[in-house]
Write a structure and sequence with these properties.
It contains ten helices and six strands, in the order H-H-H-E-H-E-E-E-E-H-E-H-H-H-H-H. By secondary structure, the protein is an alpha+beta fold. The chain folds into two domains: about 200 residues, Up-down Bundle (Multidrug efflux transporter AcrB transmembrane fold); about 100 residues, 2-Layer Sandwich (Alpha-Beta Plaits), CATH 3.30.70.600. A hairpin with a 3-residue loop joins strand 2 and strand 3. The longest helix is centred in the last third of the chain and has 51 residues. The two termini are about 50 Å apart. About 0% of the residues have low confidence.
Amino acid sequence: MDTAKALSKIKLSLKRLPIYKYRYFWFIVPATILFIALVCGAVYSGSNVYGNFANVGIDFEGGTVLTVNITGGGSYADNAKIIEEVIEDNGLTLSSAQSSGASNVIARYSNFVNGADWSGEDKTEDMINLNSKVASDVESAIKAKYPNAVVNATAETINATASQDFINKALLAVGVAMIVMLIYTAFRFDLFSGLAALCTQLIDVIVTMSLVVIFRVPINSSLVAALITVVAYSINNTIVIFDRVRENMAPYKHADKNKADVPFILDTSVTECLRRALFTTLTTLITIVILAAWGIQSLSEFALPIIFGILSGLYSSIFLAPSIWGMLMDAKRNRAFKKRQLAKSKRR
């Protein structure tokens, strides 16, 4: 093939991306990410370093939140180090620590004492007493190093029942958000668009959670907020593409839709919206990446899942949503064709 023909072929492919032609291949990427997450989770579970499938936070697993308000003490790093040492001296392991204000610290640790599980109801009173001791020890340790400091430490125990209730509410919140999106998309466009949007949202959530497992991002209340944000944001590009599909299907509105060239319409619609989708996603990512790189743990825990979800949402909007819609249309047309063939055979 000479250079002119090669350039002509490339130019033609840029005019209309072959989305529907490779519709089955687009599902390989999310399936691969899910497989890697399962492998990584299995490795993490058998590791002496991690010990569990995912980095489940106190909000879901149950544990203790230690809030230390400090006035006139040292820097956040110095205070956090003292708090961590006190927690470890009491047979506990620090899960996370984050700043709150200038030098205040919020520390979280699981209710495992010297490797033994104290999260059961039979150990509730013992855990409360231990947490009171930890809070008192933290106040004494910080005052010993900074005599002029005013310290107030309080510990809140989150038991397994509260964690399960939080999980149920989190699942309900994400589920409601997805159902609302399904109803909106189906009402604005058609049922197949709503189903395609719902499927891609499920895939976005699965991919986001898979990357959370792979990169050991804490699974906590920040993740729930991030998932709802992802569900709301990922539908944006999908709606724009479906809106263009509807415009390109307009000539067949009052005619036989079975005559519409679905692959051509899908490929054209996605190609026409591609630049907008890329620029919109890139603009959003710039802000979120800055938040993730800012160095504040709570912001990073919130921003990283959003980055995963935005990238997944861009991919699913361009490749998966149109493919699912087209496959549903093909199934409908094939069913209608079989009915017509059956009716013809009966008339004979």
